[in-house]
């Protein structure tokens, strides 16, 4: 099994959430996809997709903006008949739902993000006090084959370690009952 982590905007492989996920899935290979707002996202996706093309057991975890990228990689794999388990932490589903409009995203980054109206086949972990993204529409929305856990936390999920059991349960459940 391999775990691929997409960090959030302004973060890197030293992300505390990536480090926690590496410990959680310590029996798996782990890799953090490094990117900046000016990265060639298509090239990054092509490289990562090629690297894991032969992997049958893939966990994709994305944090905030990285969740949007992880979702896109999962969709690429899905179009080729390959499955992945998707975990989205404080996911950027729609750039128009950002509450902090003063944080400027480069045009390159904006062009590389997709609008995710109905996140399917995923586990979403969202802080109820998220100060960066507006999830009010998602709270009442039904999603297909997804689990959404709203927790008493903010966008950065400072209590993330407290939720690792939920992440692990979701992954183990998918592995055991309807995946791989």
Explain what you see.
With 180 residues, the protein is an alpha/beta fold. The protein has helices at residues 16-24, 41-51, 65-79, 107-112, 136-139, 164-178; strands spanning 2-6, 29-33, 58-63, 85-89, 123-127, 147-151. Strands 2-1-3-4-5-6 form a 6-stranded parallel sheet, sandwiched between helices. It starts with a strand and ends with a helix. The model has no long low-confidence stretch (mean pLDDT 93).
Task: For the largest sheet, list the strands in their spatial order.
Answer: 2-1-3-4-5-6
Structural class: alpha/beta
What's the overall average pLDDT, rounded? Answer: 93
Q: Distance between the terminal alpha carbons, to the nearest Å?
A: 10 Å
Q: So how many helices? A: 6
Write the element-wise H/E pattern from the N-terminal end onward.
EHEHEHEHEHEH
What is the percentage of strand-forming residues?
15-25%
Percentage of residues assigned to helices = 25-40%
Instruction: Tell me how many strands there are.
Output: 6
Q: Give the overall shape.
A: globular
- What is the makeup of the main sheet? 6 strands, parallel
Output the radius of gyration: 15 Å
Q: How is the secondary structure organized here?
A:
Layout (H helix, E strand, L loop, with lengths): L1 E5 L9 H9 L4 E5 L7 H11 L6 E6 L1 H15 L5 E5 L17 H6 L10 E5 L8 H4 L7 E5 L12 H15 L2
Parallel strand pairs: 1-2, 1-3, 3-4, 4-5, 5-6
